[in-house]
Automatic annotation (TrEMBL):
Pfam families (alphabetical): Aminotran_5
KW Ion transport (keyword) present: no
InterPro entries: Aminotrans_V_dom (IPR000192), Aminotrans_V_PyrdxlP_BS (IPR020578), PyrdxlP-dep_Trfase (IPR015424), PyrdxlP-dep_Trfase_major (IPR015421), PyrdxlP-dep_Trfase_small (IPR015422), SP_NH2Trfase/AEP_transaminase (IPR024169)
Originating species: Chroogloeocystis siderophila 5.2 s.c.1
Family that this chain belongs to: Belongs to the class-V pyridoxal-phosphate-dependent aminotransferase family.
Span of domain Aminotransferase class V: 28-329
Lyase in keyword set: no
Protein name per Swiss-Prot or TrEMBL: Class V aminotransferase
Annotated Gene3D superfamilies: Aspartate Aminotransferase, domain 1, Type I PLP-dependent aspartate aminotransferase-like (Major domain)
Keywords in alphabetical order: Aminotransferase, Pyridoxal phosphate, Transferase
Residues binding substrate, per UniProt: 337
Length: 384
């Protein structure tokens, strides 16, 4: 059926009607008082979501642009940084660091496994001369569905005293608790097409006072991504460059929705969606790629042994118009990923699990009791 696509990928995520209607509005001038009033409310609500009193700024970029900005504004060529790499996006930040001539040291874990906080502790404790200037961590690794232990890693960074912690929160912000001020996080980057529930196009960067001190002496080249420009403009409820006006209209709408749901409501809903999805997959006797103790409330990855993952995705799309995400790099065709963040409800999970059961049966996989997947997911919803 035309226009019936159901996005169950970790970004872009479904967009609520209020945001779609906001996107359809006639644009207004971005140097008007009307736009400034909207931007002021958006900025205040972004601070609420980040749980911070620090600066939160909007960039016209993807999440990658947000995290890149979060790295280059506070570092200088040759600076030593630690980068956690246990998936596609951790590797990306290491590559960004190398592109800017930083001295990158990777702390690695196998894809599908969480980063070991003790590995960071050992490197940081051994750095008696305080040469490590930053630690870059992907909180929710989108490529695998692992939620890394940001709180513990950050505690080791704080014990170091000198290093900044720079966080890729692209699929955790708006799905998982990321209390910036309470934890003392220095830089938090995210993207609009995830928990914010609007299309791709906006990057969001939050910056602590400690990071701003580092900004004063940082020497990496920057212009469009110079966060100092954004800080000055945001303080005046404006932007340094032309923004995507209607995307900010949409963000204005979804942030209001999020405030109405409340932080506890948002985090509890995503936890419930994750638990139901994982229960449904187990009910179908399909192997989960990530263990329960480090699964992300944003994404669940499935490794269908003996069945090509891309076949599952293709039939889901063809027969049910449900989009699942594939594996990346060496995991291509080995896993598929179910996104359950943003504007996703209990009904969406039940629909996806029931459709997946039909698809698996069509592919000749019958190692489950009919209806067991939906029943398992429904039990989670009934108990929460």
């Amino acid at each position: 059926m035309q226009d019936k696509l159901m996005l169950m990928i970790p970004g872009p995520t479904p967009v609520p009607e209020a945001a779609l209607l906001a996107l359809a509005k006639h644009p207004i001038g971005h140097r008007t008082s009307e736009f400034s009033n909207i931007l002021a409310e958006v900025t205040e609500n972004l601070k609420w979501l980040h749980q911070t009193q620090s600066d939160v700024m909007l960039l016209t970029t993807s999440g990658t642009g947000a995290v890149e900005a979060g790295m280059i504004n506070f570092l200088s060529p040759g600076d030593r940084i630690l980068v956690g790499c246990n998936g596609k996006f951790g590797e990306r930040w290491a590559e960004v660091g190398e592109a800017y001539s930083l001295n990158v040291e990777r702390i690695t874990a196998e894809w599908g496994q969480p980063l070991d906080p003790q590995a960071f502790a050992e490197k940081l404790e051994a750095d008696k001369e305080k040469q490590i200037k930053a630690v870059v961590v992907t909180h929710s690794e989108t490529s695998t569905g692992v939620l890394n232990d940001l709180e513990t890693i950050n505690r080791h960074v704080k014990n170091h005293g000198e290093a900044l912690i720079i966080v890729d929160a692209v699929t955790s912000l708006g799905a998982v608790n990321v209390p910036m001020d309470a934890w003392g996080l220095d830089v938090v980057g995210s993207g609009s097409q995830k928990g914010y529930m609007i299309p791709p196009g906006l990057g969001i960067v939050a910056v602590s006072p400690k990071a701003w001190e580092a900004y004063k002496t940082a020497k990496l080249p920057r212009y469009y991504l110079d966060l100092g420009k954004y800080r000055k403009a945001t303080a005046k409820n404006t932007t340094p460059f032309t923004p995507p006006v209607n995307m900010i209209f949409a963000l204005h709408a979804t942030l209001r929705m999020m405030k109405q749901e409340g932080l506890d409501g948002i985090f509890t809903r995503h936890q419930r969606l994750m638990q139901a999805t994982r229960a449904g997959i187990k009910g179908l006797n399909l192997p989960l790629f990530v263990s329960d103790d480090c699964g992300s409330p944003a994404i669940t990855a499935v490794a269908p042994a003996g069945i090509a993952a891309d076949q599952v995705r293709a039939i889901m799309k063809k027969h049910f118009d449900i989009a699942l995400a594939g594996g990346q790099d060496h995991l291509s065709n080995k896993i598929f990923r179910i996104g359950h963040l943003g504007f996703v409800s209990d009904r969406d999970i039940l629909s996806a699990i029931s459709a997946l059961e039909v698809v698996m049966h069509e592919l000749g996989y019958e190692n489950f009791t009919p209806g067991a997947g939906v029943a398992a997911a429904a039990r989670v919803f009934a108990q929460s």
